[in-house]
Amino acid sequence: MSKGVLLALVFLRCWDMQAVSQVKASDDLKRFFTSAGVEGTILLYELHTGQSSGYHADRWDSAYIPASTFKIFNALAALETGAIQDEQTIIPWDQVERPVAEWNRDQTLASAFRVSAVWFYQELARRIGTERMQTFLDSAGYGNRLMGGPIDIFWLDGGLRITPRQQVEFLVRLHMNALPFSRRSMKIVKEIMVQEKTESHTLRAKTGWSDEVGWYVGYVERSEGVFFFATEIDIRREEDVSARVEVTKAILRRLGLL
Asked: What tens digit of pLDDT does each residue of 70-80 get?
């Protein structure tokens, strides 16, 4: 068993054993959600201290459809199975006009991740296939592991569900190279997840949203440690879509992480 896997198992055991008294749900963070006019939760986890904090801790174990946050997993499975060679391999646009202009062009794994091009990752899922995708869901223990729908839509309109706590657990294992994928696959996915890179920090993250739920999940690497987050909000208005990122970054700045 690799060192990364052992460390991840220790993390998961400590996480499960955490008492409620160790979870700091801060009313100070409530104002960021209130200011944006949204209902939701944020879970923050400090890897170096093992401490959790955030807002609306009662929602950390509520399960929601992962939507485009599943692109992290989908990309790992695609690289692992050879459905795509690397982050710069091009899949030609199928010439179908879609509502997001940035989607209507040839895409690579990296560019499609950046603009969250659904058609590209649907094609990857079809190349991976149902059997192999289910095997990876089971071996990685992703969410409830249930596809419950067609191979190219189950993470958007199927039976797959994941909690904020599970999102963070998955990201911790990715960071520690403790998922059932090769180090090459994990390295490539971690690189395409980079949204900000400065002298003080690197932010790796992914958005996701459906008609009912909005996600922003990821982690910040700093010299003093690694800080994971999972934000989930209720989508009730069009402007709520942008709030998932705005609220999260405001909180991360408030904590001095960005």
From this structure: 999 999 999 99
pLDDT tens column, 207-220 = 999 988 999 999 99
pTM score, two decimals? 0.91
Which has the minimum average pLDDT: 19-23, 31-35, 252-256?
Answer: 19-23
With CA atoms as reference, report the closest residue to 160 among 235, 67, 242. 67
28, burial (CB in 10 Å: exposed 0-12, middle 13-18, buried 19+): exposed
- Direct distance between the N- and C-terminal alpha carbons of the chain, in angstroms, rounded to an integer: 35
Q: Is 130 exposed, middle or buried (0-12, 13-18, 19+ CB in 10 A)?
A: middle
Identify whether 68 is a catalytic site residue: yes
Cα separation, 81 vs 77, in Å, equals: 6
Q: Residue 50 and residue 69: Cα distance in Å, rounded?
A: 24
**In this structure, are residues 151 and 138 in contact, taking their beta carbons and an 8 Å threshold?**
no
What pLDDT is attached to residue 212? Answer: 87
Structural domains in the chain, CATH included, are: 3-239+249-254 (3.40.710.10)
Out of 2, 21, 35, 68, pick the active-site residue: 68
pLDDT category at 13 given cuts 50, 70, 90 is very low
